[in-house]
């Protein structure tokens, strides 16, 4: 059983992320908040995996991405402080 990451409820349903037009989550990606408006690539953020989850109690929706690709993109677009 999957537990909500926010409220710890067990009232969680699996699903998929879709765009507003009803397409698959292939067009949805994660863009780190530290990126500036001018930092982009042709593929932009890191694509999310197909499977997602939603908590019916608090409304949190979450998914996952390829961790290696995510680390690579953050490293490439973030200057060390």
Structure, explained:
- By secondary structure, this protein is of the alpha+beta class.
- It has one domain.
- It contains 1 helix and 4 strands; from the N terminus they run E-E-E-E-H.
- It has one helix at 67-77, and strands at 12-16, 29-30, 46-55, 61-65.
- Strands 1, 2, 3 and 4 form a 4-stranded antiparallel β-sheet that branches.
- The protein is elongated.
- The chain starts with 11 loop residues before the first strand and ends with a helix.
Task: Summarize it.
The chain is an alpha+beta fold and 81 residues long. It is built from 1 helix and 4 strands; from the N terminus they run E-E-E-E-H.
Task: Map the helices and strands.
Elements: E1 12-16, E2 29-30, E3 46-55, E4 61-65, H1 67-77
Number of domains: 1
- Sum up the overall morphology in one term: elongated
DSSP strand count: 4
Structural class: alpha+beta
Please, what is the average pLDDT? 79
Helical amount among residues, as a percent range? 10-25%
Regions with little confidence, pLDDT below 50 for 5+ residues: none
Radius of gyration: 15 Å
Q: What count of helical segments does DSSP give?
A: 1
Distance between the termini: 41 Å
Q: Output the helix-strand order.
A: EEEEH
Amount of beta strand: 25-35%
Largest sheet: 4 strands, antiparallel
């Amino acid at each position: 059983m999957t537990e909500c990451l926010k409220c710890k409820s067990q009232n969680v349903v699996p699903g998929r992320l879709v765009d507003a037009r009803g397409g698959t989550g292939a067009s949805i990606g994660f863009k780190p908040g530290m990126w500036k408006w001018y930092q982009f690539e042709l593929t932009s953020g890191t694509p999310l995996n197909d499977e997602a989850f939603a908590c019916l109690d608090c409304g949190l929706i979450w998914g996952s991405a390829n961790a290696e690709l995510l680390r690579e993109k953050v490293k490439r677009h973030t200057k060390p402080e």
